[in-house]
Amino acid sequence: MPEKDKMVIWPIYFDASRSRDEGRMVSIQDAVSEPSLDLLITAAIKSGLPPEIEREKRHPKCWHMEGAAGRIMIARAGPKSAALKRIASAMKTRYKKKGKN
C-alpha cells in the first residue's frame, strides 16, 4: 500500500482503447493508444513529477494480461486529476513525435 503522500499512476489511466469503467481516467482526447510503462515514466519526468517505479505491480482490472505490469508513484502535490492532465499532455507530445498518432 503506497504512503499517503504519494499518488499511484497506472498506464491504463491513459489508454484510449478503454472506457472510463475499464480504468481510463483522462479524457479520450488526452488518451493514447497502447500506453506503456516506459512512456508513462518519460512523460512523468518531462512533467516535472519524478516517479518511483514499481515494474512488478499489476492493476487490479488487468492483473491477468501479459505486458500490463507496472505503475509509478509520484509525490502528492495537489489533485490527482491535475497531475494526470500534466502527464497526459507530455505523453501526447511524446506520442506525436514518434509518429503514432
Give a verbal description of the structure.
With 101 residues, the chain is α+β, with helices and mostly antiparallel strands. The chain has one domain (6-97): Signal recognition particle, SRP19-like subunit (Phenylalanyl-tRNA Synthetase, Chain B, domain 1). 28% of the residues lie in helices and 18% in strands.
Topology at a glance:
Blueprint: E1 6-9, H1 37-46, E2 52-58, E3 69-75, H2 80-97
Can you give keywords for this protein?
101 residues; alpha+beta; Phenylalanyl-tRNA Synthetase, Chain B, domain 1; 3 strands; globular
Give a brief outline of the structure.
The chain has helices at residues 37-46, 80-97; strands at residues 6-9, 52-58, 69-75. It is of the alpha+beta class. A 3-stranded antiparallel sheet has the order 1-3-2, with helices on one face.
